[in-house]
Amino acid sequence: MASHPEANTPEGEIPKAQTKVIWKTFWILLGLTALEFLIAFTVAAGALKKWTFILMTLVKAFYIVGEFMHLKHEVKTLIWSIVLPFVFLVWLILALVTLEAGYIFDVKFF
Amino acid sequence: MATTAAHAPAQGNTWSGGKSPMKASYGKLMMWFFLLSDAFTFSGLLVAYGLIRSAWPAFAGAADEFVFSLNHWPVPEEVFKSFPGMEALGIEKAPLVFVGIMTFILIMSSVTMVLAVEAGHRMDQKDTQRWMLWTIIGGLTFLGCQAWEWSHFIHGEHGAGATSAHMNPDGTIAFFGANLTLNQYGPPAFADLFFFITGFHGFHVFSGVLLNFIIFYNVVVGTYQRRGHYEMVEKVGLYWHFVDLVWVFVFTFFYLI
Questions:
Q1: Which domain holds residue A4?
Q2: Inter-chain touch B100–A92, beta carbons under 8 Å
Q3: How many CB pairs under 8 A join A and B?
Q4: For a tag on chain A, would you pick the N or C end, based on fewer CB atoms within 10 A?
Q5: Are residues A20 and A3 both part of a single domain?
Q6: How far is A107 from chain B, CA to nearest CA, in Å?
Q7: Which of B46, B114, B122 is the closest to A15 by Cβ?
Q8: Residues in chain A closer than 8 A to B245 (CB atoms)
Q9: What would the pLDDT profile of A10-51 be if each residue is shown by its tens digit?
């Protein structure tokens, strides 16, 4: 297959593993998760804490999708065909969770 | 005219045929679009969670005075504070420790998966085999942890100082644990969402382990070595990373916030 130049390596000659980026990504993910735990037990509940968690989750998602799923290194067309639909979805999620849920809360309790 | 144009070599325009504009094979592309649609499904569940949760009042008092009640949404770290063998070790509560371990296991299995993909690129059958097996073991460990978590959630908190959203008039606890209609920890919707969201994710992990096993088998018998490439490992890898990705979100929205 044209897209697999690595596949042409003759048998018996296995190149050395290139795992530097993989382990770097792992340490970033682990560090962020550890930091989330720290925040969970030290910072008081509130909007700041909530949005810090959401931001950290998005950073983790960036590393998983970008490095582990290799999307960062794909063609721009492919990147946008995956990311753009999701951006619109996030917009809908924010609208539903912040505006609509607030409305339901008001109707139920006030 | 149209038929001759289709056979002519494409020049200049990326989309006029004869080229692969996304530089990805059909199978990989379809896996990406399947994952996008799957992300929509999970978003639906998380939207439902966010909406229902925001439509309930949060617990207003001090953290150490928290009680389970039908009048407010439970604080997750008060619900998920146990791990196996805790009583034997004499530990009273370990909030979010078990779910933290589960998160670590899943991230770790994602790493072994990407190492398998990397080994596949190098046509290294032995390494691919080894990392695929570790990924399967990670997946099964996660499923085992989830089984314990569910069982504990269903049977409830019996220990000293346990509270429940369902109390008898004399002050004793009327209901322990949770099912789809009754819930010790608070509004029944909390338990329903727990079962549906972690259940749907667990089902994905389960099917992921099955897929991983099929690919592992093919690696072992040398199918991909004969084929000349390990792209199937990449495809199943995409699915497995997605499962990890969803857990990152479930962890944040269900357990942290």
A1: 1-73
A2: no
A3: 148
A4: C
A5: yes
A6: 9
A7: B122
A8: 61, 64-65, 69
A9: 556 788 888 999 999 999 999 999 999 999 888 887 889 888
What's the half-sphere exposure (Cβ side, CA atoms, 13 Å) at A96? 17
Q: Contact, B117 vs B232, CB < 8 A?
A: no
CA distances from B242 to A70, B42, B78, B87, B231 (A): 12, 11, 29, 35, 17
For B2, which DSSP code?
H
Predicted-complex ipTM score = 0.84
The residue in chain A having the minimum alpha-carbon distance to the alpha carbon of residue B46 is A93
A27 and A40: one domain?
A: yes
Is residue B194 in a domain? yes
Q: How many domains are there within chain A?
A: 2
CATH at residue B178: 1.20.120.80
Among B72, B75, B121, B130, most A C-beta atoms within 10 A, so best to mutate, is: B121
> What are the residues facing B178 on neighbouring strands?
B183
**Residue B9 belongs to some domain of the structure:** no
Q: How confident is the model at residue B201 (pLDDT cuts 50, 70, 90)?
A: very high
**Structural domains counted in chain B:** 1
A59 shares its domain with A90? no
CA of B121: which chain A residue's CA is closest? A6
Q: Please check whether residues A44 and A89 belong to one and the same domain.
A: no
